[in-house]
Every structure is written in C-alpha cells, then in structure tokens.
Amino acid sequence: MQAQTQTKPKHTTRAEFYRNQVQIRIAVDKAGPQIAAVLKANGIELPACDWNHVSPSWLIATMNNDVVGCVQVMPVQPVGYVNFLYVKPSISFKFKAVALRKLGLAAISTMHYAGVHYVAGLVSQENKKLLNVLEKLNFAKLADGAVMIKYISGETTQ
Q1: pLDDT for 69-89, tens place per residue?
Q2: pTM as predicted
C-alpha cells in the first residue's frame, strides 16, 4: 500500500493577494466609458470625445471587472509612447501601487514585443513621486514642455 502524502494548501501572502486582485487586459469598446471615468477622476476631461469606440492601444487594470486604471500604449518605431497612465484616486494606496506597476510593466512589455527601441511619455512636473520612481528605473528626462491638444472632429481645413 502506497503512503499518501498530504499537501498543505499554499498560504497566500498579503502581497500576492493584492497582486492577484488587479488584472491587466486590452481594452475593448465597452471599456471606453470606464476609461473616460478614470481620466475624469484624475482631472482629465476631453469634451466631445466619443469613448464608445476605443482602440486596442488602451490597456486597463481591473478589479472585480471594474476598470480601476488605464494606460494608452502606442508602439511605433523607433520611439513608442505611453500616455494617460492613471488609476482611480478612490482605490487604496496598495491597489494603486499594484495597478500602476502592472500597467507600466504591461506597457513596456508591449513595446518590447513590438521591437520598439525607446519608450517615451509625458509626466507632470508636479508628480514628484512618479518622477522619482522613473529615475530609479533609469528613465531619463528628455525635455520640458507643454501638452497641447486640439479638437479636430468635424473641422474643415483651409
């Protein structure tokens, strides 16, 4: 008779619990209004923008099927761009940290897979914490500037 070995169920650490709660996936059309809500909660509003049709260049962080974060990833050669990396201000600090980390890693992985040589993105000068984190990850400051935006839908050029 063969002795049966009993295995104890693996204990989930607190860090694993937090990491497992946040999932990253490619956004589809239904996620557009939720992305807009995350941006609006962070003070970014784009009037007249149709969020019902988002491209798969958006990655979202979800918790229990609720979108809690987003990032726009544009893997163009040779410099890809990452924009709109935001999480809902209402979630806990731990979940914010996990969501931001996972979104950032997914964005960089996407760039690497696409063969992009550099990744660039805009970070507000007021966001000292993120600037410090990026410097620790060997990001270099490229330039200072202003973010410019213009609504173009329905406009004719002369």
Answers
A1: 999 999 999 999 999 999 999
A2: 0.84
